[in-house]
Design a protein that fits this description.
This protein has helices at 7-67, 116-124, 138-148, 185-192, and strands at residues 74-75, 83-84, 100-101, 108-109, 128-132, 154-158, 166-170, 173-177. It is of the alpha/beta class and 210 residues long.
């Protein structure tokens, strides 16, 4: 004959069953939380790794672009660096370096021609001088200005007597182009603004004359 259980024992058994059910539920929840956390961590690690790899790749591409030769760039050596008070007869038009005025020309955009001897001093400090034919269409001038405004060390001004509509000059380097949309303009700026050719990198391009 089966032994009957008392109400107290039945309540205790039900309570034990409920506790076990609760423990199983908590274990499932902990497992789910752990799984979600692990998935989130794995996704974050993968995202960080992707960003790092992408950033490194971009840096390598940018460095390669900075080091790559630019088609059409002419380079010049043995340029004088004395300070003078009068006009200088430069071998290049516009000049790419040489003796110059003691005060540099402030970097910026100018609607009128600037003084060669002062602009050369700016290039000694690492500026790129973008000169254009005075008759260049305004939309092309605007393109040149937009490209130059990405850098602190640039001069943009009209220039009479050039063989090409647009010339980019840095100390000891020059690039002549026919159009403001020329794809070589951006690499030239990236490579030569405060580039390795700069005799006095970091020297001011403000506080001079304009």
């Amino acid at each position: 004959m089966a032994q009957s259980t008392s109400p107290r024992e039945e309540r205790a058994a039900r309570a034990a069953a409920l506790r076990e059910q609760q423990r199983r539920k908590e274990r499932r929840q902990r497992g789910l939380i752990i799984g979600i956390t692990a998935a989130v961590i794995a996704a974050l690690v993968a995202a960080v790794a992707f960003v790092l790899v992408t950033t490194q790749s971009q840096r390598e591409e940018e460095q390669a672009a900075l080091e790559a030769p630019i088609d059409g760039v002419q380079t010049f050596e043995d340029l004088g660096r004395d300070h003078v008070t009068g006009a200088v007869d430069y071998a290049q038009t516009p000049p790419v370096g040489g003796d110059h005025q003691a005060v540099w020309w402030n970097c910026g955009v100018y609607p009128e021609p600037v003084v060669d001897e002062n602009a050369v001093h700016s290039m000694e400090h690492g500026a790129v001088w973008i000169t254009h034919d005075p008759a260049l269409p305004q939309e092309q001038v605007d393109q040149l200005v937009a490209a130059a405004e990405s850098y602190d060390y640039t001069l943009v001004s009209p220039y009479e007597g050039m063989e090409s509509p647009i010339t980019l000059s840095a100390w000891g380097a020059q690039l002549a182009v026919e159009d403001a949309s020329d794809e070589r303009i951006a690499p030239f700026l990236a490579q030569y603004v405060q580039g390795e050719q700069t005799p006095e990198p970091g020297a001011a391009c403000t506080g001079g004359v304009s």
